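Tokens as discussed.
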């Protein structure tokens, strides 16, 4: 896209919103919009629908990426690359949050749940000789390390051999993180049990050992799988379904949030990169991660613009899911709800849905998985159009938990997997789910209590973490 296009400013009035929210609002142009969006089969209109979202570009901004669905925006690509190439630095420099997850409280709860699972399996006579525990996206590895400390203690206190049976896969998509935990000796105290290596949450179960490069296929053999704050790293899209009556005929029109990315403050480019403007624009068209890597230094100059466009969605691979989500939203909120006045927003956690399905499919028949994420847990929250948030050079988007729950209801997933919630959920937008193939009443009972948002008794900080700590691992007993 040539830099010229920057001059083509939208005629439609744009609602300026916060950098993380795309809120559909009532406006005087409502009727006009309804007409414009009436034909879902038309290509994206020359002028986009006005029901949206971010500030328009300034006069001499440079267009880096033209309109694409939110999930394909360049900052999702750069975020993926940042995790893969420099996750260790992100944590060390505290550019992404980790302290609350790594305080030990989460580890203790997960240790208790795993212990309950072992007891339940033992009582049923089905406790495996080797219990495979997988952590996906382990980050600093502290959650897993502390979980193992707790679990070892619980086994010792109960004089069981549960800890001895553990085979642990400490995994991440970032080789620099797996190297870091090894160099720091994070798992030395559990060395006989832990293997560190690569696993992608998008293909869970496929493990590559960092030391030996041995590949281990754990699909169908994962007894316990944890993924904390990983699903919310996967792309989302935003849609809106509107019912329109034209000349007495009712039609359904879908809109999609499209995003374009501008580079702001052209005069500052030389302070961020040696690339010329032409080189920058050329690189932005590349499909190669190495090319995007060269754009990463410009990250803080990027400016996003988001709008809802009427586009044909008949061929969209997730169309059935979108219809289902919209129907559920309308049923949950009631037809006259003010949040439905301008149509039904579907905040679509496409990436998370895919990942969670893959995780569920890779579980052992008696296994379970626990995910914890920032999530949207009520129809009201999910009814508002919004996009992702930035954390340093990474992005994350709350997971639409209503979609996750719906995927496993009545076995819509076809996997025979159930999805369980804690007794109280969603406080501070924290959402936890347990997935299991078999009925695991004891394990699920402990899970529901441990993650009950109203139960603070299990929020024990161990070991005490210090805000002045410079090393990620300085509180860990060796
Ligand atoms: C927000 S951090 C969370 C880390 C840790 N689980 C916690 O709760 O603090 C996300 C982690 O997931 C990793 N990650 C990103 N994409 C991934 C993927 N596709 N598969 C596995 N891990 C991924 C990142 O490298 C990072 O370590």
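Sequence:
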């Amino acid at each position: 896209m040539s830099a010229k296009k920057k001059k083509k400013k939208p005629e439609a009035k744009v609602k300026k919103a916060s950098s993380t929210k795309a809120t559909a609002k009532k406006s005087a142009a409502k009727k006009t919009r309804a007409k414009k969006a009436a034909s879902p089969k038309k290509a994206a209109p020359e002028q986009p629908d006005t029901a949206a979202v971010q500030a328009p570009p300034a006069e001499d901004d440079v267009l880096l990426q033209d309109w694409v669905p939110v999930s394909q925006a360049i900052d999702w690509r750069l975020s993926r690359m940042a995790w893969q190439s420099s996750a260790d630095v992100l944590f060390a420099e505290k550019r992404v949050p980790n302290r609350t997850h790594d305080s030990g409280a989460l580890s203790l709860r997960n240790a208790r749940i795993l212990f309950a699972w072992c007891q339940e399996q033992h009582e049923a006579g089905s406790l495996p000789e080797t219990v495979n525990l997988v952590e996906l996206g382990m980050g600093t590895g502290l959650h897993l390390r502390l979980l193992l400390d707790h679990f070892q203690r619980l086994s010792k206190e109960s004089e069981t051999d549960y800890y001895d049976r553990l085979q642990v896969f400490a995994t991440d998509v970032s080789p620099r993180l797996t190297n870091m935990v090894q160099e720091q000796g994070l798992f030395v105290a559990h060395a006989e049990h832990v293997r560190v290596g690569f696993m992608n949450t998008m293909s869970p179960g496929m493990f590559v050992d960092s030391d030996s490069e041995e590949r281990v296929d754990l699909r169908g053999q994962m007894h316990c799988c944890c993924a904390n704050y990983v699903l919310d790293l996967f792309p989302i899209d935003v849609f809106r379904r509107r019912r329109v009556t034209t000349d007495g005929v009712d039609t359904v029109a879908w809109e999609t949030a499209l995003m374009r990315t501008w580079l702001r403050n052209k005069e500052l480019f030389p302070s961020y990169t040696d690339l010329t403007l032409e080189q920058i624009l050329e690189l932005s068209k590349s499909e190669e991660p190495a090319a995007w890597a060269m754009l990463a230094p410009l990250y803080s100059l990027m400016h996003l613009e988001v709008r809802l466009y009427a586009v044909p969605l008949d061929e969209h691979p997730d169309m059935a899911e979108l219809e289902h989500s919209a129907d559920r939203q309308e049923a949950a909120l009631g037809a006259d709800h003010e949040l439905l006045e301008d149509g039904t927003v579907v905040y679509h956690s496409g990436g998370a849905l895919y990942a969670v399905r893959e995780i569920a499919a890779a579980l052992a028949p008696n296994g379970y998985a626990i995910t914890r994420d920032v999530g949207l847990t009520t129809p009201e929250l999910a009814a508002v159009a919004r996009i992702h948030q930035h954390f340093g050079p990474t992005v994350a988007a709350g997971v639409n938990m209503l979609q996750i729950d719906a995927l496993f209801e009545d076995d819509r997933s076809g996997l025979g997997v159930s999805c369980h919630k804690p007794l109280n959920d969603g406080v501070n937008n924290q959402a936890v789910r347990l997935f299991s193939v078999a009925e695991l009443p004891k394990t699920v009972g402990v899970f529901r209590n441990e993650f009950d948002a109203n139960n603070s008794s299990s929020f024990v900080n161990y070991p005490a973490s210090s805000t002045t700590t410079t090393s990620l691992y300085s509180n860990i007993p060796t």
